[in-house]
Design brief:
Layout: H1 2-7, H2 14-22, E1 28-30, H3 31-43, H4 49-60, E2 65-67, H5 71-84, H6 88-99, E3 104-106, H7 110-118, E4 122-124, H8 129-142, H9 148-162, H10 164-173
Parallel strand pairs: 1-2, 3-4
Length: 181
């Protein structure tokens, strides 16, 4: 998600994605995209919730218009998500793009890029193959593996806020969040 990468300190795609966003005019996004970005920042990249909200508030205050989602758009996006086999948040953005006459949509998601083409919208991304390899290496080094380890890491993070001794015990019992206790 280009917005997420642009807001991550130290991520290999951060500068490229931020420059990509700043280098274009008349961008827009939806409120759903902001919610998804916050979820990814906090749950995947472990950005503090208050910090994530601040970063997204600064982003939304920038030169990008944020489109609210009404019930008609939500229902149309649900159908589009089902038809195109894409994430609901992506369908909302694609539907908003179509409704606003956009000819380009910024995404690094392959399924969304394919769906864009079905609606004569050209997907754009600042992420090339070399950068994608750097991102994969960075994520391997800095993030827990997808699946159970990532879920266990979230539980550990939550426990650590509530009771550090319990969190320490959980860490030990799960082998550093690599398996169930």
């Amino acid at each position: 998600m280009i917005i997420v990468y642009s807001l991550l300190d130290g991520h290999p795609a951060s500068v490229v994605c931020e420059q990509f966003i700043r280098g274009h005019t008349e961008w827009f996004t939806t409120t759903f995209t902001l919610f998804k970005a916050k979820s990814i920042l906090t749950k995947i990249y472990s950005v503090d919730v208050v910090r994530a909200s601040q970063k997204l508030a600064n982003f939304a205050a920038g030169p990008i218009a944020v489109i609210a989602v009404d019930s008609a758009m939500a229902l149309a996006a649900m159908n589009m998500a089902d038809t195109c086999g894409i994430d609901l948040t992506d369908a909302v953005l694609l539907h908003a793009s179509q409704n606003n006459g956009a000819v380009f949509l910024a995404t690094d998601d392959n399924k969304l890029a394919q769906a864009c083409r079905q609606f004569a919208i050209t997907p754009e991304s600042p992420i090339d193959a070399a950068l994608r390899q750097q991102m994969a290496a960075w994520e391997t080094a800095n993030l827990p593996a997808k699946g159970l380890p990532r879920v266990l890491r979230q539980i550990h993070h939550w426990l650590n806020q509530a009771n550090s001794q319990t969190a320490q015990d959980f860490w030990s019992q799960t082998g550093g969040c690599s398996h169930l206790p």
